[in-house]
């Protein structure tokens, strides 16, 4: 059995930033960090557009209060306003902190950090490193992990959270290289495991974004918060689904339909292409539904619209958004200097997740906390994004709440004793689970079952939703879950068995998908990214509250928790 004062699961921005903060405050603490990929391959590295902060380098009229209002309005008033205040107040400080660590932000001619426009923001406040901002930040954080002596377990897959008597005591993990199982005992466990985009068949997320941390919490009896709110990014490159950053529209690109019209004038005349993502995704979906989408041959009635950069000119495209040009050229053969990109909405971000307070400690219910357990980043719900996240606030959440959670842990762990439990029980259970999958004599291929599940989620819980469609989807998902014991693995080996990892991930995806659909079915209103065609209006009187969903084999139970409203009264959301 391995031992650490703190074990952090997840090698992206939130996990790395928390680990560094803990070691900066108390270098004597023994901190371990587990990642199922190498930390540099964490999905944070794919974040493109930027990180929001009121530095006032471009817009001296900006303020943290304006940033906070934009965030709360963007959230359709479901964000907890105390958490948003912390996010926006601490934003400038964390940017300077990152710069001091060595992050290479893009610059203005006078040397200050450059800032660009982003959807839903009323000022130019998004700091960036061309269109590779997550890459630039994560590289510096990971290099600093070595410097501060954090023990890194890369390419280990965490199978289970050890939770006994409402106290987190450690994790069970599996070495992908050789199949070796380990139990890690720790005074504090932190989850920073990212999102779950792979629940859907078209997503900007990488193959590792399978909701493992959320599913482990749910299977341990802990609630998940606001799972119905899934962000579909408006500009996924058709047909592959990878992200074309909002930075492209921030730099001036146009969305056009089959008639060549900039159709956002009909949906958000003031913000146009820089309306919040939920509004823009619905607009694109409605244009396609109305027959104004585009076919690959250029004719009307097709499955995508155009993102047009041509008027921006080659110099601006290649200096400001070179990675987006490269992705379109490499993946679909489009040279964006001379021709428009084909785009449509793609599953992108999870506003919901593991419920935490503003110190990052995980909630057992609306009014109780779990001892020894913390979470931050996309897997957590603090909630700063509410029903819809503004672009460039996700990297900010990872850094602000990663750092804040690290500080909380550094203080909290001082009074914690190393927990006791029967490690062999968990090793034996993990061995049985693995052997059970390896020995299963089923008839279903993992890929076929996963695709059927992802197609089902996309069809029944997409950009637009109705009660009848979601109810059908829930039945279909439960039928697919019943087929999971019928999957079979060709690879029976212990070394680098990716098929085994995929089987474990599929089990987690199915748990998360059922919780998303159940939560969405019971929220009978439209708010942010949750758009009900049978309930098109927002209903604050009944649904200005957070959903808490509890998983069990018998079904999902729901409770609700109040939203913190202490600064901005909810009002109609117009752009």
TrEMBL record:
Residue ranges annotated for the Fumarate reductase/succinate dehydrogenase flavoprotein-like C-terminal domain, each copy included: 450-575
Stated name of the protein: succinate dehydrogenase
Annotated catalysed reactions: a quinone + succinate = fumarate + a quinol
Protein family membership: Belongs to the FAD-dependent oxidoreductase 2 family. FRD/SDH subfamily.
Principal subcellular localisation of the protein: membrane
InterPro entries attached to this UniProt entry: FAD-dep_OxRdtase_2_FAD-bd, FAD/NAD-bd_sf, FRD_SDH_FAD_BS, Fum_R/Succ_DH_flav-like_C_sf, Fum_Rdtase/Succ_DH_flav-like_C, SdhA/FrdA/AprA, Succ_DH/fumarate_Rdtase_cat_sf, Succ_Dhase_FrdA_Gneg
GO MF entry, a single one: oxidoreductase activity
Cofactor(s) recorded in Swiss-Prot or TrEMBL: FAD
Subcellular location: Membrane
Superkingdom: Bacteria
The EC number(s) this enzyme carries: 1.3.5.1
Membrane-protein topology: Peripheral membrane protein
SUPFAM superfamilies to which the protein is assigned, alphabetical: FAD/NAD(P)-binding domain, Succinate dehydrogenase/fumarate reductase flavoprotein C-terminal domain, Succinate dehydrogenase/fumarate reductase flavoprotein, catalytic domain
